[in-house]
Structures are given as structure tokens and as C-alpha cells.
Amino acid sequence: MLKAAVLGATGNVGQIFVQLLENHPWFEVTTVAASERSKGRTYGEASRWRQTTPVPEAVAQMEVVDISPKAVKNVDIVFSALPSNVAGKVEEDFAAAGYVVVSNASAHRMDPDVPMLNPEINSSHVCLIEQQRKNRKWDGAIVTNPNCSTTVLTLPLKPIYDKFGIKSMIVSTMQAISGAGYPGVASLDIVDNVIPYIGGEEPKMESETQKILGTATEPAPFKVSSSCHRVPTIDGHLEAVFVETEQEADPKAVAKAMENFVGEPQTLKLPSAPEKPVVVTWEPDRPQTRLDRMEGNGMSTVVGRLRKDPVLGGVKFIALGHNTIRGAAGCGVLNGEYLKVKNYL
Amino acid sequence: MLKAAVLGATGNVGQIFVQLLENHPWFEVTTVAASERSKGRTYGEASRWRQTTPVPEAVAQMEVVDISPKAVKNVDIVFSALPSNVAGKVEEDFAAAGYVVVSNASAHRMDPDVPMLNPEINSSHVCLIEQQRKNRKWDGAIVTNPNCSTTVLTLPLKPIYDKFGIKSMIVSTMQAISGAGYPGVASLDIVDNVIPYIGGEEPKMESETQKILGTATEPAPFKVSSSCHRVPTIDGHLEAVFVETEQEADPKAVAKAMENFVGEPQTLKLPSAPEKPVVVTWEPDRPQTRLDRMEGNGMSTVVGRLRKDPVLGGVKFIALGHNTIRGAAGCGVLNGEYLKVKNYL
Amino acid sequence: MLKAAVLGATGNVGQIFVQLLENHPWFEVTTVAASERSKGRTYGEASRWRQTTPVPEAVAQMEVVDISPKAVKNVDIVFSALPSNVAGKVEEDFAAAGYVVVSNASAHRMDPDVPMLNPEINSSHVCLIEQQRKNRKWDGAIVTNPNCSTTVLTLPLKPIYDKFGIKSMIVSTMQAISGAGYPGVASLDIVDNVIPYIGGEEPKMESETQKILGTATEPAPFKVSSSCHRVPTIDGHLEAVFVETEQEADPKAVAKAMENFVGEPQTLKLPSAPEKPVVVTWEPDRPQTRLDRMEGNGMSTVVGRLRKDPVLGGVKFIALGHNTIRGAAGCGVLNGEYLKVKNYL
Amino acid sequence: MLKAAVLGATGNVGQIFVQLLENHPWFEVTTVAASERSKGRTYGEASRWRQTTPVPEAVAQMEVVDISPKAVKNVDIVFSALPSNVAGKVEEDFAAAGYVVVSNASAHRMDPDVPMLNPEINSSHVCLIEQQRKNRKWDGAIVTNPNCSTTVLTLPLKPIYDKFGIKSMIVSTMQAISGAGYPGVASLDIVDNVIPYIGGEEPKMESETQKILGTATEPAPFKVSSSCHRVPTIDGHLEAVFVETEQEADPKAVAKAMENFVGEPQTLKLPSAPEKPVVVTWEPDRPQTRLDRMEGNGMSTVVGRLRKDPVLGGVKFIALGHNTIRGAAGCGVLNGEYLKVKNYL
Question: Are the beta carbons of B169 and A311 closer than 8 angstroms?
Fold first, then answer.
């Protein structure tokens, strides 16, 4: 078993990391780190655990340590669920201290020498680690996953991009409250309400989509326009996607490409890889957030309502994925698994 | 005072008609008609009133009558909140019997000789009544309002269309549960959920938008693509709109065009006309469904987040309007007022 | 494997029966029966499956049959999720045809010769079957579970009753929307709302509590007063309970009695029996509906906030249980398991 | 016009004070004070106004000042919406500086020389001001309203207490999220959830009810037991109440006593006094939070489902009131009006 630390372990994404790593075949959480306020308390006390499964017993007993390479010792991999304003410096410290950091934070996602992996799509970007180590003169590494709405979106985009080409894309999101962490969105702001704004999300969706679908060094050249909205759902980001393709794209042919799509995680049979990264439904009113977000244990994107788009000339469809699993901790764990089999740990 | 009948008066939109006509300066509800099941009971009993203001005392005491010209006698105007499957034939019967029917139903909206009025935009289409009377050999008339999501959307589109031209448009909606009537959406289908489908809504948004923004006889030639979603809000349809303009359209210039936009209802000072059909906000996270849906007594569309669209090259923005007021009964009452001052009653 | 039929299989509780019986070690669903409207279609089509786990493949392919002993042949046990207005006659027909019917319907619950089992509490009432068969001259039998709110409530009451005696009890419920079935509660009635009334629920809670805690022939003599409310939660009935005890009851002693409480299902190690029928928490703000309803796979009642009651002189506490699992289909399956090991099938 | 300051004006209750005082016939907000962070900004900027009516134009332009008698000058009355941890000292400072402070904070409610007024019930307690001034050697005064759930509850209790006597009382509350202020309850804690705990609320309900219904110097001697719960509603506290009366209390006689109940605010025709402090409904499923919370402009308690209670022997019923209007700022304004006509300003 490899020893894993979770940074920012008491927050919402940190808790999902702890939850997903319980009974993991390769990784074992041996260290939980969080901010000053939690230090010295047990994880059970400090986390105010808020998941629907019980806190893993062994982790509950652990003492929470400082978020520093000094305090976190003797682990083989570091999963970071830190808030982005903290993550920037801290993750660099860990990488400099020789650790491989698998991060959910946005701080380093757009760094040219940091791989931002949605591994079914761009596992090959892992090669950036060599460049990163050279540039930064460290033995560790930082690898990130994309932001939640981008992760969910890019899975079904990839087979379209490969088979039909993409010239441009418009997306409107309906994002769950858990995407804002805890305490996050005030209930007075979201009950019987939609908030048509999520700070920083639209630029992220646009640039991250291009980076993931591009090569390790060149972003994909197509244009992306997004409008991001918070709706009163707990988990699951639902997105209305309109795609302009290079070549004529029939909805059925697109569906077939999506259904056949697999990546390295599937070939390598990584423990957290869903059998199908993209699941296509033809039910007229699916995917629905509450009913479909756990597809593939929360690791698949469910696509529905595939139809011609009369404006862009390609296809339009609905995509739904679980924002804190596929869109955050689950993608992080999958990235950790990929790094392991590729001998980066 | 003109005497008004409300058809389908016990349903949700019917109740809003009754609510809006309380204390109306020109119209007085003197007859309420509903389906068999309500017949012979007082409106107070039959309606199971579910609004947040009390049922108007006078109407509560009225006996509910049949939905037929025979039972509804001696009124000057008929407001129809009938379900569309019933409205088709019934509204024709009323028009044939000489009544002017102002309808919220979709049954006749796309008939070439029926004006579908969002009166700030296309009050001139009222001229179709002459054609309608000739074609159908009746003395009455049928005038409709558009469907709720289209009504909200077309208000801000009109000044763009007039000033910059529109080549195409993409819209994703986040629609409230009241749009489905009562009982409508099952709570198990919408709590902690988004349903990415509303039966018939997308074709309606596409064809109705073209009809309203066109001339009385020719639809506007631009393409529309929509994706419609139900979200857990009570009232208020929020829409993410992406517009390709004919001419370069700067967000500030677009905002100015919207803010200056008025139509005949404003010029004529109709009682239900909002001072501003379109209200523009620059707050970063507005409009919000719960906070802004009552703008202009629920008769305005609030536009926010006006910005360049990198894909279509025009602008993108958020539009919000009250679906059962501006998008249904309120627009119907405004149409009735317009017909009155134009001497159609 | 014993063959099982589910009556009313397409409804919400029917779907939970099908879900819980997937991979059951003793029972296999071989027949699904539902109303006329579903007849002849596959279960997959007819059920409009609305659970968060996929419909079991084998059941999805089955053709739905009539709800009659004629159409349902060759099964060893019949689980009934019929609406109560239908259940009365139909369940009698099945019992007369020799079937053992395990019912969730209220129709026969209060019949003096029908056991209403919450089996940790009153499995001994199963003896009423002999009387029932004699009275009604049939070879089959009807056994019911209590209504959902009563099932959840009576688990923690039993150890209090046994150890301290109960003189009277007041309970206010906060019940989930799934308790009303599907489509059930209209969304317009429950978003941002509480409905302080559930038809028939209060009399049921009062009489059923007395029957379950009594002997097979005599209801428990203590008085019960309830106030039942529907709140905007999906699953899980939360109840505020105030108990007047016969003897001085210290909260800690009550907690201990609850924690030690087990019944025949635990002793017999029935497959659906939770390890602990009652789980006590001392967290100040627990149990919470969303976080705790799946305790014991949805088969336990979670009790929290145990404290002295200054008015009744006993204790007050919060009880939470899963209404469609423990409170309906899960209790039915547990009853089926009990009947099997007791050789009633 | 009397000049009014609002302390804590940017918070949720502060905003309701500002909203209710717009167009008030006697009071005009001339000063808004808030914490350090808001100082020097206009109220429009600092408040992040979150009400469904627009921010009053004149107040929006005001500069926010410090919460101190030094910064707040030249006003005739001070309305305090301060958080309780701040209010204690600050309100004393204002009273010492000669101001009459009408407070919504809990800090001084239980002080023996501070009147806690729900003015239909205990306006006579205003006499405590003399004692207060003597004790504390100041010219100003502190007057408070009760906590929100208590205010709603005590209105219907008063006519029962006067006519039938009360021996004891049990109440379970279902309280809205706005009761916790802003940001208050995290959305992840309340969507699809009930939280069976509100810090400090139960002791407050118990002691404040006794103080209000008692004489100026002696609390009412009956026992109160409460269980307080947060549910996913925006505004409106709904309460299930069980009352043990001294004398036989028939539900109809109780209803009559409630309907006839008025207090000094009605006799004096205070501007914010509702015509009926208690409105009784016999609809089987009312009052409902969303539909009935604005009764009497949010100043009445609506009582429904009046019935015999089999355990306590008196009556049980549902009470609903608006927590931020009647239960907070509205009661404060009413208290201010009462103090004015009684010449305390």
C-alpha cells in the first residue's frame, strides 16, 4: 500500500478524497493536514464530517497536522484539496520537498509545465512533468485535475473532437451547490433561486477546455463561450452544450463515438476508472441531476438529448457529471492511480 | 368598466388572471368558467386558491360556469387560461359567438391569421384580426400571447434586432415549476434536481420568436436554437442568451438600446405596462430569479451580465422574467388593454 | 430461491421493493403486477424507473401482469405496494387463493386478526395468522407493516416502554415527499413550504403505535397525540418526540436501553435486519435528514438530542428513519424474511 | 417626522428595518450604522441588498457610520438589528447617551428591568423603563422584542391564557433559514434536509414565553417544552403547539377567543398593527408557510387545525408567522410606534 496525505482534508473536497480512498486497493490515507484551526484535533472532531457515509474509523482517529512538508512526512503521494489561494505556494513547497502532488486547486492548472489531466483525454500530457522538474529544479511534481464543470464537459467533447473536429462551442451550466465548498453558498442565496454567476468559472471553462483537448504544449484552437449558473441541487453539474463541428456530425454517429470512447484509464484498468467514461441515454428527459449523477460511481459523464443544432450546424446535447467525484476528488484519485502505474510515485 | 370572463379560471394561470384583474381600472371579472368538475361550486371552493394574496372576495362568491359561449354571457372580453388541448375548439366557439378572446394557450399561436402579441414588440400584428375575421367568418377574434419563455426572451431581443440585426441566437433556459401549471411538476422530480426537457418548449421558443420579431406575415429570418430546463424555483424563467448580430454590437451600446426601448404600451400608458420593458443591471451576479422576478410588477425582463460572445461574435447575457405574469396572465391583460384602446372590444 | 411477486410494482414503493430484492439471498422477483395501464408492457417501460440505482436488468425485461391471483402464478410470497383503496379487496383475493401477502397498504393494518409487524418490536404478533385463517377460511395470510412515520417512531419507543413504561406521548413529524408516492406532492405545494397536514396520518400514528406496542390482542394503553407535517425533503421522516414515562427516566439510561435494544430479526440474523435497530447520537445537531437517513442501510432509526422533558416529565428526543425503506418496502422485506424462517411461506 | 437610526443596518434584519421604514408615516431613517467593514461606504454598496423590493433610494445614498453614539447623532429613536454578541455593550452605550433603543437582539431581553414587548400582549411592561432608568442611571432606555419563534407563538397563546388558563405547553418548530441571518445557514446544510437544532433557541422560547405572558415583574408560572428545527423555507416559522389548559377548552371557543383578541396596538391604531393579531383558518391543510406568511402584512400569526389534544387535555394547533417581520423588525417598528404614542421618544 502506498501512503497518502490529504491536504485540506477537512473541507468538502478533502472529505470526498478521504471517502474515496477508504478501502482503496493501492492508497491508504495516513496523514490528514488542514489549516491552523484544526491542528492538533482528531480528524473526527475537526472535520465536522458531512458526508452520507460514515467517516472512515481509522482516519477519524488521526491527529490533523499542519499543511507543510515538515509536518507531513513519510508519504508516497499527496492529494491536495486546498483552496486555490493557499494552494499556490504550499503545493510548490511540497513538490520542492520531493513529493508528487495531485491537486484539485486551480492555482497551477494553467502553468505551461503542469499537466492538467482528465486522464481519459490527455494522459499523455503527463510528459510535462519532465519539463516541470527541469524548470523548477525539484524532484517532486504537481499534477492537477481540471475544474469540475470542465472535467464533466471535456469527456464527451473528446470523441467529437477526434472524429468530427470542433470549430467552436457554447455551453450553459447548471451547477450544484457543493461546487462552492463548505460553507460555500448561503442558503438564502439559493433556495428558490438561480445565481447566474460563479466567480472565475467562465474563464476557467474556456481556457481549461482548450488546454485539455490540445497537445501537451499547444491548446486546442477552437473557441469556447460559456455561461455559468448555480442552481439549487446538492451534487451534479448539468450542462447544455452546443458544438460546431468541422465535419458533418450526425447525432447517431456522435453517440456511437461517445459510447466507444475509452482512454488509458480503461485500458490500464485503473481502480477508479469507470467502464464507460461517457454514457449516452436516449430517454427524452434524461440525464437528470439527482437520478444520474452517480453513474459509473460518479465517474462517468451522462449525455442525453443528442440532436442537431440549427445554429452552429453541429450537435447540441445535455451533459451531466458528479462535480465532487469526477469533477474533483475522483479525478484526483484517478490521476494518482495513473501516476502510480506510470511509475511517477 | 368592461366585463371580463376568465376561462380555465381555477388553474394556476387562471388564478393569476383573477389576481391581476382585482382592482383593474378597466376590467372587472364577472364570470369564471372551468371544467365540468368545478361547475356549480363557488370559485372560492373550486379554485383551491394557492396564491400568496387572498382570493378577491367578489370572485370567490361567484358560481363557476361551463366553458361555453352559452354559459358565459354578457361579457366584453374573454381571457383564456385553458390548457392547450382544450383551448383549440373552445376559443373558436367563443370567437364565432362574437367574443374577443385573449388567450394564453398555444393552440392558435402559430395560426397565420392570429396575432401573437408581446405588445411592446409587435402590437402592429393586431391588424391580422381583419384577415382572421374574413377567413373564419366570425365577428369575434382570437389574440394570443407567446409562451412564457419566449415572452421573456423577445423583449430584450427586439432592441438588438432593430439596432444591430440578428443573424442567429442560442438560448438555454432555467424555468420555474409554476410554468407547468398545477399540479404540474411532481416534487419528487424537482427537489435537488434539474430536468433537461420541457415537452414542446424548444420548438415553441424557436418558431414563436421568429413570428413575434417578424412582420405580421413574415417570420424574422434568423435561426434560433434552444435548450430548455426545469429547475427548482417557484416563479421566474432565467435564460442564458447568445446572439450573433448583423453589425458589431458593443455591450454598452446594446445596454443603451435596451434601456431606451419602449413600445406602444408605454406610449399609450396602458395600466399594466411596465415603465421599462427591459431593465439592465450591471451587478456582477444579477438578475437572480428570486430577487428580481417582480421587477416592474413582474412585467419587465431584467437583463444582466451583458458581455461580448467570443463564439457568435455578438453579445451574451442573462434575461429573467416572471413566467406567470409577463409570460402568461400579465401579458394577456396587457393585450386586453391594448385591444380596448384600439377599439377592438 | 423463493419466488416473489410485487403488486403495485411500478409505483414508488413498488420500485423500492424491486430495488431491495435485487441480489436478495432468499427472494427473487419473478412477477411484477400493476394496474391496467401498465399491463402488457415490460417493467422497464411501464415503471418509468426513478431510483438512483439502475433498474435490475432481469426485472426490466418482465412483462407486467394484472393484479390478480389468476395472473400472478407460481410464487412463494407476494409483496404488496398497492394503494390502500385498491389493496383491501385484492389482498384478500390473494390470501384466499393461498398466498402469503406482505403488505405496505393500510387497508388491513387495524384488522384485529392481521399482524402489523415492526418485527424487532412485535414479531410475536405473527401468531394472529392462525386466527386470521380460521376467521376468514383461507390458506394464505395477510401481514402488514405499519405506516412509515409509525415504523420509525416505534423502534425507539419500544425500549422505553419495556424499561420505563410509557404513560403518554406527543410527536410532531417532519415528513419527506416520497412518503406521498409518485407523483404525490405537487412541487408548487412544497418548494419553500411546509404543509401542516397529511391525510389520515395522525389517526394512523396514534392507533398503530398502540397496536404495535401492545400484545397481539390488546393495544398498549398509553395516549398518543401527533401533529404531522410535510417538509421539502426527499426521503427520511424526522420526528420530535416527547414521552411521559411511568418511572423516572434519565436520558443516559434511556440511551443505554435504546442502544442495547435488539429483536428477533437481529437474533435470527435476518438478511435485512440492521445490526442496531436504534442508533443513538450525542452530536448536538444530529440526526439530520439528508445525512443520517441511510443509517443501517436505511433500516435503523437514529435518535438524537435525548434530554429531559420539563412538561411531561420524561424524555424528549429526535427520531429519524428512512420512510420508504424502514418505513415501507424495507420493513416489508424484513417481514417476509421473518415469515420464511418461521415457516409461514 | 421622527429621525431613526438603524444599527446593524446591512444585515438581514437591518435590511428589513430599512424596508419597513420606507414610507413610514412617523419615522424616517436618517442614519445607518454597521460594523467597521462597511464604514465609509454608501449603504447601497455596503448592504449588498438582498430583498425582493428595491433598496430605498434615499437610504442607498447614505454613508454608513460607526455603531456608536458618537457617530450616530441627532436621531429620535434607535432601532437595533445588531448581533447579540455585539448588542449588549453597544445598546447600553446608546441608552446611557440618552437614546431610546428598540432592539431585536437577545442580549438584554431577560434583564428584569428591560421590557420585552410583543405589544398586543404585554404593552403594560413598558413601565419597566422607569425602573431601568433608575437602576442604570441613564436617560435613554432599552426595549426589546422577543425572539422570532416566541413572538409568533405568544400571540395565539395570550387569548388562551386569559380565557382558559395554561398549565403547560409543548411546541415543535419548523423555522425558516432567514431566521439565522445572512450568510447564516449553509445551503449544503439545508437543501433536502432538516436540522433538528438551533443554538440557544429552546431556552429562549421557554423563558421568553413565560416573561411575556407574565406580569412586568413575575413570569407566567406554566411550564414550556420546545423542540426547534430548521427546515428549507425562506421566511416563516411554523409551529406545532400542544397546550394544557386550566379549564376545559373547546376548539371552537378557543378560536373565538383568538379571533376576538386585540391589544393596545389595535386600539391605538398604530400604523404597523395588523387588524387581527391572530387569524384563524379552518381549511384542513393551512396555514402553509409560503402561502400564509404575509397575512396582515407579515404581522399576524395564522392559526389552523385547532383540535382537542388527547394527551394534555387542552388543544393542539398550528401557528405560523413571518419571522423577520412579526418576529423581528416588524415587531421592533411596532414597539417604536407604541413608545412614540406613549411619549417615550
Answer: yes
Domain that holds residue D220: 148-321
Q: Total domain count for chain B?
A: 2
Q: Are A173 and A245 within one domain?
A: yes
Enter the C-alpha cell of residue B337. 388593454
Do B64 and B89 fall within a single domain?
yes
Same domain, A179 and A287: yes
Dihedral of CA B267/B270/B276/B278: which sign?
negative
CATH number of the domain enclosing A141: 3.40.50.720
Please indicate whether, in this complex, the C-beta atoms of C194 and D288 are within 8 angstroms of each other.
Answer: yes
Q: Provide mean pLDDT across the span D262-273.
A: 98
Mean pLDDT of B334-340: 98
D131's grid cell = 425602573
Q: Which residues of A touch D191 (CB under 8 A)?
A: 177, 187, 190-191, 232-234
Cis before A54? omega within 30: no
pLDDT of residue B73: 87
- Residue numbers in D near A178 (CB within 8 A): 188
Asked if residues D140 and D99 have their Cβ atoms less than 8 Å apart, the reply is yes
pLDDT band (50, 70, 90) for residue C165: very high
Q: Which residues of C fall within a CB distance of 8 Å from D242?
A: 170, 225, 227
For residue D117, give Cα distances in angstroms to C286, D129, D150, D151, D232: 33, 12, 11, 9, 29
Mean pLDDT computed over D154-164: 98
B-C C-beta contacts closer than 8 Å: 62
Interface C–D counts its CB contacts (< 8 A) at 132
Q: What is the pLDDT of residue D73?
A: 87
- Residues B131 and B280 both lie in one domain: no
Nearest-angstrom CA–CA distance, C300 and C281: 12
In CATH, what number is assigned to the domain containing residue A261? 3.30.360.10
C304: distance to nearest CA of chain A, Å? 16
Residue C124: C-alpha distances to residues C131, C160, C167, C259, C274 (Å): 13, 19, 23, 21, 19
State the DSSP H helix or E strand holding residue D318, giving kind and residue range, or none if neither: strand D315-321
Pair A152, A133 in one domain: no
A132 and A222 belong to one structural domain: no
Closest CA to B175 of B106, B234, B225: B234
The C-alpha cell of C220 is what? 398498549
Distance in Å, alpha carbon of D149 to nearest chain C alpha carbon: 16
Cβ B113 vs Cβ B136: under 8 Å:
yes
**Catalytic residue among C148, C228, C322, C331, which?**
C148
D126, D102 Cβ separation under 8 angstroms: no
| Closest residue on chain D to A192 (Cα) | D234
Q: Is C228 an active-site residue?
A: no
C294:A52 CB<8 A: yes
Rounded to 5°, the CA angle A37-A41-A47 comes to 70
Q: Please list, in sequence order, all residues whose beta carbon lies within 8 angstroms of the beta carbon of residue A181, skipping any fewer than 6 positions away.
A: A11, A12, A13, A83
Q: B: neighbours with 3+ CB pairs under 8 Å?
A: A, C, D
Nearest to A192 among C53, C191, C234 (CB): C191
What ipTM, to 2 d.p.?
0.97
pLDDT tens per residue, range B146-184: 999 999 999 999 999 999 999 999 999 999 999 999 999
Same domain, C257 and C155: yes
What pLDDT band is residue A18 in, cutting at 50, 70 and 90? very high
- Rg of chain D taking only CA atoms, in angstroms: 19
Walk across the sheet containing A278-280 and list its strands.
A223-230, A166-175, A237-245, A315-321, A301-308, A278-280
D284 burial level (CB within 10 Å; 0-12, 13-18, 19+): exposed
Contacts of D23 (CB under 8 A, 6+ apart): none
Fill in the DSSP letter of residue B195: B
B136 and B227 in a single domain? The answer is no
